[in-house]
Design a protein that fits this description.
By secondary structure, the protein is of the alpha/beta class. It is built from 17 helices and 13 strands.
Amino acid sequence: MKYYIIAGEASGDLHGSNLIKALKEKDLDADIRCWGGDLMKAAGAHLVKHYKELAFMGFIEVILNLGRISKNIKFCKIDIAEFKPDAIIFIDYSGFNLRIAKWAKANNFNTNYYISPQIWASREGRIKNIKRDINAMHVILPFEKEFYEKKHGYNVNFVGHPLIDAIENTPKPVNESFRASNNLDPIKPIIALLPGSRKQEVEKMLELMLSVVDDFKSYQFVIAGAPSLDDDFYENFLNDKNINFVSNQTYALLSLSYAALVTSGTATLETALFKVPQVVCYRANWLSYQIAKRIITLKYISLVNLIMNKEVVTELIQDDLTSKNIKKELSNILIGPKREQQINAYSKLENKLGGIGASENTAKSIIKNISSK
């Protein structure tokens, strides 16, 4: 069968690659075309467009790039029509994907959504479009099933969280060799810095994260380079001997880290699954933040706190994200009861997410969905 997969970010590339592997295991004749990244291409799909060309952060950035987005949507529709897939699979990236889904369903394509748009956080009215345009929704967070089915009467499949698969499948590094190969201090404990995956985001976050380096001289700070950014982009931030950088090795870094400063997003959950105490940091463009504040209805912004429905990790948001507060909260998770509380809560979090198998469960569900049509 023929599958067309659309992912628009680095996390979507990761989860899309594992889904592609699962589809190919279950459908030996699978022909897969995708929007995504290097991982999806390596997994065996024909890459149409790289997510590096697609990622725009915040309301203002999207507005400034409306022309490019419109051209991408037009091109995507033409490409799908020519390929004639048996199923289209949307992975997150809702602003783009829901627009394609409307067209695709109207043109009688089988539509599947893997990793739901976060309509439980904002613009809940999009449920009408999802009900109309999506044949099958495959959700990865336990509270999403209840949200869709009990609140909106829309049946969905809870497949488990793909991060558990991704982490399970990642080889564990040897501490000594990892430090040596990345020119890290052989002894100092590591504080990982995960400033995001988009240029605008990283530029905002790293300066603040690095402002506390001199307050923690017995630790080494290591920036996790995102696959979506070139290594030379980070050079301006490496101006202190206690600041280091690793490229595209976030999971290896987290597996050896003592603590972390993390920009809100999927990385907060990844850090938790590696059992690394963290402080969540977030600061957006002022206007984008003012708009978001008025449409997002959540009590928390990090996935860790949302899933646990309580404050497990401290969130420093917008004006609260200061050097003083970063220093205070980082100190709290390096030693003392708050550190142990986080680690204990992480185990309960993992249980809520289910075990391994999200990619396999999703592949089976999609193939079943196609066969039943």
